[in-house]
Amino acid sequence: MPAPDILRTPAAMLAWSKAAQREGHTIGFVPTMGALHKGHVTLVERARAENTKVVVSVYVNPTQFDNPEDLKKYPRTFDTDRALLEKAGADAIYAPDDAAMYDPEARTWVEVGELADALCGLSRPGHFRGVCTVVTKLLSTVRPDRAYFGQKDYQQLRIIEVVARDLNLGCAIVPCPIVREADGLACSSRNVRLTPQHRQEAVWLSKVLRDAKAKIGAGEREGLKLAGEMAEQLEAHTSGEIDYVAVVDALNFADLQKIEGEVLLALAVKFGSVRLIDNERVSVPVKP
Ligand code: AMP
Known about the structure:
By secondary structure, the protein is α/β, with parallel strands linked by helices. 40% of the residues lie in helices and 20% in strands. It folds into two domains: 5-176, 3-Layer(aba) Sandwich (Rossmann fold); 191-279, Pantoate--beta-alanine Ligase, Chain: A,domain 2 (2-Layer Sandwich), CATH 3.30.1300. The strands form two sheets. The chain has a six-stranded parallel β-sheet with strand order 1-4-3-2-5-6, sandwiched between helices. Strand 5 (146-150), helix 8 and strand 6 (172-176) form a beta-alpha-beta unit. The N and C termini lie far apart (55 Å). The relative contact order is 0.13. The structure holds adenosine monophosphate (AMP).
């Protein structure tokens, strides 16, 4: 594979994309914060399969971090990322620095309303405002035909679908399945920061979700009861601090008293300063 072009400014990125489009290419785009793992790689491979050009952004966006320590400690591995992206067949890497990304006079934010106030938004104030703003900026610079997002960050994916629809961003948002380690832990750039003990305990996030899904399969329909049992299981098997355990409507994140329709089982647990999230989707036929 030829080495990907590296673009460092919005103007350079926009010029690259316009040239590619003039030549008749379709552009698939994968936004990331770097520290790439096999979850990211599957998104790049999907983009590669469905488009003639692939752009990956590597940018740790400060405006979506509510916790300065998390921002400081977020892993940055650009040289390894670049090698991985070359192997995966990316044509361009968009990697601006903060000064290139945010004008010092910038005052425009993209907000999505109450969808951003549920789940992760409750304990991460301003997080989705930062995500919506940076993704809108990225999409208007890269101008892709399709943008690929992981279902691991389910709330983010749903919110970006809504932003793309509401602002007519003209790009298809493509959801991609969660990629997991062999023991079930969802791949995450933050996993490398877990202590060995926390890494072992973290497997319970996916186990609890799988068990809950099985209970729904066996007929459980009480949302609160199921969420309570999931929290109990996490407390029994991990030393992590539960941020939330939720059984909610997968489209609007409203709590579900009765489990039916498109359901999202989601949880967030903090191991020291490392906050992990995971989720499962379940479709439950609605009984009249
Ligand atoms: P991040 O670099 O963590 O911001 O993630 C960039 C993109 O990769 C987002 O769309 C994530 O949802 C996606 N992603 C991260 N981890 C995974 C995973 N384990 N499986 C699938 N997609 C993922």
